[in-house]
Write a structure and sequence with these properties.
The chain is mainly alpha-helical. It has a single domain, classed as Winged helix-like DNA-binding domain superfamily/Winged helix DNA-binding domain (Arc Repressor Mutant, subunit A). The chain is built from 8 helices and 2 strands; from the N terminus they run ααααββαααα. α7 crosses α8.
Length: 147
Amino acid sequence: MKTIERRSTCPINYSVEIFGDKWMLLLLRDLMFNGKNSFLEFRASDEKISSAVLTDKLNTLLIEGIVSKETSPKNASKFLYLLTDKGINLVPFMVEFLNWGSQYNPNGGPKSLLNEIKKNKKKAITQLKAKLRSQRHSHEENIIKAL
């Protein structure tokens, strides 16, 4: 796997070098808000990411420790990409991004989540983080059961 050469030690530069293109944010969207976690599910998104670009972006997320790559307990030839704690800590950022985008593009977005954010953003973020951690924990339990 390739490593990312940093242009500087600036925290904003660090973030931009990882997330500075549309594909990374769309992958995070799919992982956090759309329940997607396999290569084929990501490929099925409306934006039609190519296989080569998807592979590159997933590898970057793996290298950076934002996702882990696990074998599916239901299908040994299928891999699942799960957010790590580092990835889950991006939820507040993605919620703000979602909220901003829905304000200026009111035709899109998950309405139920947007309503929860409008009612109580802090609670919505806490619940989403807990849900993502629970999904990760459930996957780990399924692996143990499969052994």
